[in-house]
Write a structure and sequence with these properties.
3-stranded mixed sheet; two-stranded antiparallel sheet; 5 helices
Length: 164
């Protein structure tokens, strides 16, 4: 199985040299040619196929980063104005970050008097100032705090999204 994924990643990397991508192994899709979209002039993020190749990056990371970039550009071209993105390299899902929205993972802890309280164990989204405030228990006006469990459901599977 790993050899097959390596071959797919190698094929995608080789084809990238010629300016197009092939997404292989999609459930029920077979091989599908995906043209790289035109990157709009107002697109504020770097795109892997427009960057010089880094020799230290593994081929499977290049493939994931290319998929990540394809999702970002398609979303932007559809009018979605996010302020940042992330990708879970284990699941391959892409997550979009929006202004004034933070995702929080809550953990329980026991205080010396025996009471249980919640604290922020992980936080992502928005900008660092808002993340710091929420981590300290301060909720700035207009900020939406969502549980990280909801973030998992909002992830974009590049293979499904790009096959539309």
């Amino acid at each position: 199985m790993k050899l097959m994924k390596y071959r797919q990643a190698l094929l995608m990397n080789l084809l990238a040299i010629f300016g197009f991508s092939i997404i292989c192994g999609c459930s029920g899709l077979g091989a599908k040619k995906i043209e790289r979209p035109q990157v709009p002039s107002d697109f504020p993020f770097p795109v892997v196929w427009l960057q010089p190749k880094k020799k230290a990056v593994r081929i499977n990371e290049l493939t994931q980063r290319e998929l990540w970039g394809l999702v970002m550009v398609k979303k932007w071209n559809e009018g979605d104005r996010f302020i940042g993105t992330g990708m879970d390299m284990d699941t391959g899902k892409v997550y979009l970050n929006y202004p004034n929205v933070v995702y929080v993972k809550w953990e329980d802890t026991q205080l010396p008097d025996g009471t249980i309280t919640k604290y922020v164990s992980e936080i992502s989204g928005a900008d660092s100032t808002i993340r710091d405030q929420v981590s300290e228990g301060i909720l700035p006006p207009g900020v939406l705090v969502l549980d990280m469990k909801d973030m998992d459901a909002s992830g974009i599977d590049p293979y499904e999204y790009l096959s539309d």
